[in-house]
Amino acid sequence: MQLNRFIFDPKTGLKKKLNKVVTFPSQINMRKYTTSDSKKDAIYYLKSILVHKGPSCYSGHYVTYTYDKEYVFFFILLFIYFPFSFSI
To answer: Computed from CA positions of residues 63, 64, 65, 69, in that sequence, does the dihedral angle turn out positive or negative?
Structure first.
């Protein structure tokens, strides 16, 4: 799933970064969004979060929060990773 956090501002003619807080569950059932006739649940689990850090959509960089195989959360910045405690 992807959330677009930038919009076009018709008054200025520029892109604008949205800074509103977004929350989401650690798992989601996507069955109602599929075209399958199956009654089986389509459960997806949160594995990573990609975050833009910066004052605007024209500057900054992206960082990642991701799980490893043992479900230890890591913060990744420019190929350097750090174990990270994260509560969802």
So the answer is: negative
Domains: count for the chain = 1
- Dist CA 69 CA 63 (whole Å): 19
SS3 content of the chain, % helix, strand, coil (to 5): 5, 45, 50
pLDDT for the residue numbered 33: 84
Q: Which residues of the chain are under the pLDDT cut of 50? A: none
Residue-range definition of the domain harbouring residue 73: 6-83
Query: At a CB cut-off of 8 Å and minimum separation 6, what does 28 contact?
Result: 1, 43, 44
Q: Is residue 88 part of a domain?
A: no
